[in-house]
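Section 5: illustrative case.
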């Protein structure tokens, strides 16, 4: 019995927790009309998403129903119906047209036209709002009870129209508006490489990088505005193209409008207006169906501002729908990063002391030499045109740097050798692609110059042997001459 009571208590606690959890994630309903005679309801099935959405329910017309038949009247304060609807002398509302004699011709269409929906949108006012509903993350539906019979117009912040429907007595509708999806990738680099998912690249300073944004259109698309920000090491090249199978056309009465902000002198550029803002026209969006794809492509040049250990970032996002002003109608930002590498050479002598006067050049795998002009890297076939860095001793260190490098294999060549030292051997370094760690992007190498050894002398007796040999030869010559003279004298006698 005790165990049963414990089990019952645990179950009761779980029920209370589940109840609290469910209420925490349930939609918030702010209802103007709370108690009516008719007791109608509207249940809306909503698309499950990570976002919150706000729904507004407007009563367009009053209604009277007996379970089978229904008639509509203008709501209080209205003297006429929206375009597409007409009233008779008794104030009844019909969907159709009326001639000059007052004869009404019903419109038997099963759905409202786009023009009729726009007319209702313009017709409703805030005093016709009967409920505001805010859904929470992962909500799948909500129900608004205690509504008077009527003809209702429902909107959402995701899109514009959810439905126009009657409560007879209850209505069940589905919100087919869906949230768009945006993704940005690096799809090209003129000097460098990028990873498989396009989120990171290693690229050379002065080269260009291609960015591609993909927008998957949601159902009920409206008010799509594309935003793009680049950090100061990336400069937009004014070459945007927008395509959905065919190139879109810029213009307020066409497909999109664009606003650019590329002020590189701005010290706080990253917090200013978007660098690229594209607003898609409602005319264009109305032609798009769910899952239609819009592709935005452009390039940017990597500038000297990128000469640091932090990557340059390019961030894009999309605002959409009827934004309530709290930022909830914004896609998650999609960010890509562009890195460049640096090679530091430290010069010492054989005694580990910093050594000045050593000049270095860098050669790539093609046999061309590194040149840095105005913080733009290029490669020269002739070593005479290469950028040579000569070491100086600063704070007990003699070092030079080659900056703004893409991935690849390079060879360090000592072009100028300090007087009194032997030339150091060439050094090979490799900057791996798709490796964005500091150990790969910030290579370093110590290069040692050893002084030359004094060549050996002849050694031993040195030059003495030459003096002795010379003296012997001289004495021999004298003896020879004296002997010859005596022999000549003897013959004469």
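Designed sequence:
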């Amino acid at each position: 019995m005790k165990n049963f009571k414990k089990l019952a208590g645990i179950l009761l606690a779980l029920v209370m927790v589940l109840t609290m959890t469910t209420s925490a994630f349930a939609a918030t309903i702010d209802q103007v009309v709370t108690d009516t005679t008719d007791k109608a309801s509207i249940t809306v099935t909503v698309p499950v998403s990570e976002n919150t959405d706000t729904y507004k329910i407007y009563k367009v017309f009053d209604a009277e129903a007996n379970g089978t038949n229904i008639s509509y009247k203008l709501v209080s304060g209205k003297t006429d119906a929206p375009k597409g609807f007409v009233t008779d002398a008794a104030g009844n509302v019909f969907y159709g047209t009326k001639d000059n004699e007052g004869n009404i011709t019903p419109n038997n269409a099963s759905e409202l036209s786009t023009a009729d929906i726009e007319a209702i949108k313009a017709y409703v006012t805030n005093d016709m709002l009967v409920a505001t509903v805010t859904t929470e993350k992962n909500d799948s539906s909500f129900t608004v009870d205690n509504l008077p019979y009527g003809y209702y117009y429902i909107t959402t912040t995701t899109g514009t129209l959810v439905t126009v429907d009657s409560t007879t007595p209850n209505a069940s509708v589905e919100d087919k508006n869906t949230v768009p999806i945006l993704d940005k990738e690096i799809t090209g680099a003129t000097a460098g490489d990028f990873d498989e998912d396009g989120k990171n690249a290693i690229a050379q300073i002065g080269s260009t990088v291609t960015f591609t944004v993909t927008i998957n259109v949601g159902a009920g698309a409206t008010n799509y505005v594309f935003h793009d920000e680049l950090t100061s090491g990336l400069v937009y090249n004014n070459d945007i193209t927008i395509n959905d199978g065919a190139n879109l056309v810029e213009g307020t009465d066409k497909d999109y409008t664009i606003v650019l902000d590329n002020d590189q002198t701005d010290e706080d550029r990253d917090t200013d207006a978007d660098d690229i803002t594209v607003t898609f026209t409602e005319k264009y969006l109305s032609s798009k169906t769910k899952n239609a794809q819009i592709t935005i492509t452009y390039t940017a040049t990597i500038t000297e501002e990128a000469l640091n250990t932090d990557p340059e970032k390019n961030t894009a996002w999309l605002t959409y729908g009827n934004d309530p002003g709290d930022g909830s109608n914004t896609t998650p930002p999609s960010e890509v990063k562009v890195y460049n590498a640096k090679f530091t050479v430290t010069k010492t002598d054989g005694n580990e002391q910093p050594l000045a006067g050593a000049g270095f050049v860098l050669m790539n795998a093609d046999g061309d030499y590194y040149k840095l002009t105005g913080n733009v890297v290029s490669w020269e076939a002739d070593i005479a045109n290469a950028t040579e860095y000569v070491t100086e001793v600063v704070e007990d260190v003699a070092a030079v740097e080659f900056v703004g490098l893409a991935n690849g294999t390079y060879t360090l060549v000592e072009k100028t050798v300090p007087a009194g030292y032997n030339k150091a051997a060439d050094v090979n370094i490799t900057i791996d692609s798709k490796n964005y760690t500091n150990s790969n992007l910030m290579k370093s190498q110590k290069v040692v110059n050893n002084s030359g050894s004094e060549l050996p002398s002849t050694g031993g007796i040195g030059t003495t042997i030459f003096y002795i040999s010379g003296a012997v030869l001289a004495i021999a010559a004298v003896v020879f001459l004296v002997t010859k003279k005596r022999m000549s004298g003897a013959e004469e006698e």
